[in-house]
Amino acid sequence: MSKQSQSSRRRFLQQIGATGMLAAAAPLSSLAAKEKAEERTLFYEKKISAGDKIRLGVIGYGVQGHFDLDTALKVPGVELAGICDLYTGRLVNAKEKFGNDLFTTRNYKELLDKSDIDAVIIATTDCWHSRITKDALAKGKAVYCEKPMVYKISEGPGVIEAQQKAGKVLQVGSQRVSSIGLAKAKELLAAGEIGKLNMVNAVYDRQSSIGAWEYTIPKDANAETTDWDKFIEVTEKMAYDSKKFFWWRAFKEVGTGVAGDLFIHLLSGTHFITNSKGPESIYGTGQFSYWKDGRNMPDVMAGVMQYGDTPEHPAFQLTLQVNFISGTGGQEVIRFVGSEGVMEVQGNNLSIKHSIMPEAPGFGGYDSLFTFSKSMQEEMQKDYDARWTAAQKQRPKKDDVTFKAPQGYSDHLDHFTNFFDAIRTGKPVVEDATFGFRAAAPALSCNESYFQKKIIKWDPVNMKLV
């Protein structure tokens, strides 16, 4: 290994921290009782595969395309080979950042035709994900496709089939599934730390114009500079609209709204932690509360999903919430409620609070006992005391614990590391096409439910509408 490569490897290790789930050496029940929850740091040990150089292309160089590329280039051995975007200003931006020799194009097929490109990031408008993914796989490229993997449920099986036929790596870009925090949550749920799961409440709120997708539109935006005709090639014909191009998430003609942007993060995390294949019924509702800017996708939306009793998990309900004008200032949390406690996952951190019922049933207090005659109350009290001990009447105590990721930890970097490791070693990715579709379909079904005003039935095993 060259000195330059060794230096790059050291810098990378410093960026991502020490590594491996060493967080909880002692069982939670063995900790001494404390008034305040104990805080532990999630340590991890990330092994970087020494491997061949990977030449990377980017298709869609908007906000997420920039973030994805910046993170991907932190992985040792990854080099940028080309960028494609429809808006000319972003191609100028790419050359300003990476130099005039960088290959740029407005035609993604020209980038896919380059034999020196091994993998591509697809960070385009939702309506283009399926077509470009299939074309990239057919050209022998490994694919990192931003979520949602598909724009329509009907596109899912075709993408799965294309990946299987090509035999190339396909990873979907919901980075939380590579988080050490979610891995610890998965471990603790399986160990029964909160008892039997019965409900999950998931929230992803925002309170800003940018959070609501009102991105800055450049002064030179027009049908020519955005190649509008190409942009609408996969949609119904539409007159040029700069909002539909730059604020595309807010419009159903090209995007998938809060469901495809944020519900899908919550679904991916829930499915990873519970090992679930998905819900059986889906209901979505929404409203336009504040961002009345011409959009036709709600700025406040909720979903309710019913998960069945399966070998992977007990039956549970999932509630989803996104509020783009939330007085909380914004929050992201997935709350797993069990029979003996609650586990909250916030980003890469998690906390567990316990509440365990006593073995003895309730008696007295807010109970019908006091409405009986005095003699009946005394007789029944004696019977109760004879049957149950003082210990059985008390709630068992179990310590609360908080787990935090190391400072500077990045699940986004781990997700890309997993992607490139899979290319180099052939190991499976966490979020493959099947996982990606099983997260996308319920999210997209929330939109269908909202527009059709009905409950959507879904077969999570066979991945089809019922």
UniProtKB/TrEMBL annotation:
This protein's record includes keyword Transmembrane helix: no
InterPro entries: Gfo/Idh/MocA-like_OxRdtase_N, Gfo/Idh/MocA_oxidrdct_glycsds, NAD(P)-bd_dom_sf, TAT_signal
Any Pfam family hit: GFO_IDH_MocA
Stretches assigned to the Gfo/Idh/MocA-like oxidoreductase N-terminal domain: 54-173
Protein name: Gfo/Idh/MocA family oxidoreductase
Record keywords, A-Z: Oxidoreductase
Superkingdom of this protein's organism: Bacteria
Molecular function per GO: nucleotide binding; oxidoreductase activity
